[in-house]
Each structure stands twice: as C-alpha cells, then as structure tokens.
C-alpha cells in the first residue's frame, strides 16, 4: 500500500512539474496553427525578421525586442531604399548609413503578434540568437505565417526536443 502511494505521488508530481512555466519561446506558426519554429527566448532578446521588399526589390530588416509581457517591441527597421512603405512618423529617428540603407530607430511599437505573407520575392528569414531560419523554405509560397512570443512549459520543452 505504501509503495502505491509513493508511486502515485511521483506520478502526480511529474504531471504537476510538466505544467510549470519554464520561460518564453518565439513561435512561428502557419495560419492553420502548424508550428514551424519554436525557439527559447528571454526578455531583452532581439529577433530580426528580414525579407526583400516585394515592390522595391531591396532588403528590409525589422528588429523586435522580446518583452517581459510576451509582446514584440519593434525598435528598428533597416530599409534598402527610400521608396514605398517607408515609415514617416516624426517621432522616428531616420538616418542614412552611406551604403544605401535607411535606418529607422525609436519606433517603439508593441505587437502581440506579427503576420507576414510568404512569396517568391520576399524570401523571409528570422534570426534569433545569431541562428538564421529560412522561413521561405519552410512554408509554401502564398501562405501566411505569424510570429508570437509564448509561455513555455516543461512538458512542451521536453516534447519539442524529441
């Protein structure tokens, strides 16, 4: 009888621990919920989303900082031209780097999630902790994908590493 109680307590403890939060993860999902990327992050980490502008055909890079509240803070963008789609808010700090790129700082816009559409031209990629993930090769052309920061749990971490 004592062994059954010990066993039951161990099983219940393992179940309880598996649902404990263990940090945060950057998650890229298709619109249908299929997970494409699952990468641990912490507050202050920077996530870069790069792509080629579909009209201007120049590189664009967006810098997002991971917040403690699991939100994405857009802090900076780098554009390869001064053309279509360049933000023009007076509070932004826009500079030219002399190499053909416009740097826009002081954006400080917060998002719960960011949505993009894949395509032959944009060739989206994401950089987290210096690891580059070619989203364009993971999701078919013409499909939406969504970047979010989610709470991570012990069980989820274990399953994602298998």
UniProtKB/TrEMBL annotation:
This is DUF1850 domain-containing protein.
